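USER:
Working in pairs, take the chain set out below, taking as long as you need, and write a paragraph about the fold.
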Amino acid sequence: MVISQDNWLKCCKTGGKRKPCHQKQKYELGCHVCSTKTGPLRIHTVCMRGGSKKYCVLRLDMGNFSWGLECCTHKTRITDVIYSASNNELVHTKILVKNCIVLTGSTPYHYAVPLSKKGVTLTPEGEEMLNKKQSKKVQKKYDGRKKNATISSLLEEQFQQGKILVCIAPRPGQCGRADSYILEGEELEVYLRKIKAQKGK
């Protein structure tokens, strides 16, 4: 069956079906759901009307994740899908959609105060990175951050576990990317409650 998004194929406000006035035209066709899953990158290029292209992602395992508190962005691997507001089945099948909550590693992120996994000491390379000599301008910026370097206990727990909850912002099946942002503050508390309630069912 061909998918279509046109208005005359939908029901009336009263709930009745509209009579078809003509057959489906080429410009009225929709596209099938690509169901982007976690795995090695696999993209299908779809030619659209007017010569434009859409990048239909079938498998995706990496994304650019931004941390608003520190104003930094890093490329990190997606490990698991934790919560999806639209359908719980998307969590079981590991399908990536807009606004779903996924789990990523905390390794690339550095904070004004060193954050590492619980019971894990930093490697010599990690210590060298934290203590390397900076220019006066950069050192001044870091010292200014350290004065007001406060991080919520919930986010600190996630850093100690080595796993962070992030929210996917774009539509991976349409644009071919999974750029996201780290959950923090009230938003993190809300989603943790929802995840706990979902697991309790």
About this structure: The radius of gyration is 22 Å. The mean pLDDT is 80. The CA atoms of residues 153 and 159 lie 10 Å apart. The longest strand covers residues 72-83.
